[in-house]
Amino acid sequence: MEDLRDLGVPYPVARFIYNSTACKNIYFKINGEVIGPRTSTVGLPQGSILSLISYSVYTRKLIPLIPNDCGSKSESDNSAGCAYICPSANFSRSWKIFSHASIFSIEAIAILYTLDYILQSSFSKSVIFTDSLSVLQSVASPCPNTIKSSLIFLIRNRLAVLAKFNLTVKLEWIPGHKGISGNERADAAAKPAATNANLLNIPLPHSDFYHSAVKDLNDSCHAWILAMGNSKGVHYTQCFYKQRKKPWFASFNARREWIVSLCRMRSNHYALNASLACKNITDSASCPCDPTVEEDLNHVLWNCPR
Ligand SMILES: [Zn+2]
Question: Could you tell me which CATH number the domain at 68-204 has?
Answer without folding.
Answer: 3.30.420.10
